From TrEMBL, chain A:
InterPro entries: snRNA-activating_su3 (IPR022042). It is found in: Nucleus. This is snRNA-activating protein complex subunit 3. One of its GO terms (molecular function) is bent DNA binding. It comes from Muntiacus reevesi (Reeves' muntjac).
Amino acid sequence: MAEDSLGDPACGGMDGRQDPVLSSGGFNFPEYELPELNTHAFHVAAFGELWRGRLRGEGDLSLKEPPAPALPGAGGVSDSGSEDAAVARDLGCSLETAAELRAVCGLDKLKCLQEGEDPEVIPENTDLVTLGVRKRLLKHREETLTIDRPCRQETFAYEMESHAIGKKPENSADMIEEGELILSVNIFYPVIFHKHKEHKPYQTMLVLGSQKLTELRDSICCVSDLQIGGEFSNTPDQAPENISKDLYKSAFFYFEGTFYNDKRYPECRDLSRTIIEWSESHDRGYGKFHTAKMEDFTFNDLYIKVGFPYLYCHQGDCEHVVVITDIRLVHHDDCLDKTLYPLLIKKHWLWTRKCFVCKMFTARWVTNNDSFAPQDPCFFCDVCFRMLHYDAEGNKLGEFLAYPYVDPGTFN
Amino acid sequence: MGSSAGLKDDCEALLSRFQEMDSVRFEDFTELWRSMKFGTIFCGRMRNLEKNTFTKEALTSAWRYFLPPYTFQIRVGALYLLYGLYNTQLCQPKQKIRVALKDWDEILKFQQDLINAQHFDAAYIFRRLRLDRAFHFTAMPKLLSYRMKKKMQRTEITEEFKDPNDRVMKLITSDVLEEMMNVHDHYQRMKHVISADKSNPEKSLNLIKDDFFDNIKNIVLEHQQWHKDRKNPPLKLKVKGGEEKIERNSQQSERCERAESLAKIKSKAFSVVVQASKSRRHRQVKVDFSDSESSQVQTKTTRKRRNKETLKPAGRKVSSRDRGDMQNLHKEDKSLSLSMPVVTEEDEENESFSETEFTAPKRRRKQRTKS
């Protein structure tokens, strides 16, 4: 698999300096290639194995609930006794020391609030800088806000982040295995608005190492998949049957010099061929590109750089930048249901365009050259559209062109 | 970034007080912890999302001090701090501590050192954290999303917590000294053996100074002592001085002084405010020195109202630079400037908005009505 892809078009002046010498302890040890930006390329499964090798047999990988520590004083004597024995064995100290340790290092030693003190109230005479800042903020909120509650975007973001935490599957066959890798992938929206100059909106998905690339492809919701081609001013009731998702099924992922094409259906074409031919036609300075089938590869089989932008292309020209931000071992507090992955945990909230008439419902139609509309193009919800443009019998009034419109905020 | 700067200050305050205690016992740490009421750092009616982000940040800040090149005592203090933060956090389920693969071996070695040195409480704490599965085992210490900021923020290493960079000691370690001693003795013995007179070696074989080895040993010991002396008085002074950064390594003091003088000049420039005319009295610019960030924000809001005061254009040009400089005030001069389109994470934006929440809503509202 070609890793020396010197040219990622997004990279511009940055040349990807491959420096395998940097990686200590083997090639698959993630190390920074560009400091604080991305790592060099490594094999995902091999990286997973490096971790598992170090943690095997220690109980770190287990997905069962960890045993709670015996509290000093409380609990059966036998519990603390066996725990002390374990401590003595691990640390090489005596049993008395172990018992003493349990008392000295207990959680009660960290208690800073007295009984009955509210954990939400900031104590009065505090030296902590963080608390000073927070106090000022709270005071300001009290003074300026009538009702102090989280706005719905914040609630939405929090829900997305935590809705699947700790979920266990009903069917135990769907349980994630110990030592499974979870990759967190940022998929950026393809639109380029000026207002997104500084912060490009993206969605974050968690995907398992053992899942195929096609599973991620299927779970990416992009509004361009739902576009309906065609002009429907004469036949507004004809429910559009073919959305673009069904018509144009080709897609590819680009990782480290290889294009992974979706070839599950006979209609799927190799979209990457154009790029490969272009690259090979002249000496453009890119290494050799390879192609492969998306459905044959899982994330564990890939060589990738963490933090480096890659590409997902579908519908022929709808391109999304894809960045793998993190890879880690699964933890017992994560969502343990395989069927819920790829899991969406972060989504940019997009304001939907409302109907021009009622300003309440999301627009479903867009018209051009419309004699009834004050602007071109103009957006309408279904009801207002029909009321304005058609009479009671359903005859078309006036001249206009109407197209079904799918708002990018549909997925909110 | 309000909360992260505050966190850094609080962690460093705790760790430097722990360092002064000159102990690595958990009991001493908990005394400090309780006296500073550090566990209350999570108080204050944080909403859920904010709680999560703040806790993650707190754990990341504390984690930095746990890895080399910090001194042994600071690393033990950081371990205790992590234990404290992990157990007093209010998030449910608990936020975890991220460990990268490249750091794990170092940490295990540290644990082994603790056990060998019989610091059982520290070893017990680490074992406890591991048993509670407080760690996330990851590829890299933080999430990487190819953010291309114009000025990369380099995390600076607090110099007082480091062992001073001692090239001499790295060259002449105790192993090397022992080796040298052995070789020297062997050499002397050989000379005795091959000379005719067994008690006195031949004069012609005197090619080196006999006390060569002793000299080196003395010089090295003197050097070590000098280092210790250099380190200790500065610490005492810092305690008394508090805010004053009197003693640091010479390099950093120069940089800091220069940065500080720059900041002084800038703040002097901004403190001079043009008096508004009578018709514009209600829009007089007020400079608030209590919070340097808010003073910049204030000048920005007045700018947006298209004030004709002469300070404004200068303010606008300098404020963005000033912001960057303020950020670099205590950081190293090296900055990676990159010329790519800016792609930053959404969280950053939300956090920075919440920090300047005082005036940000007003600012945003103003923008909308104008456009």
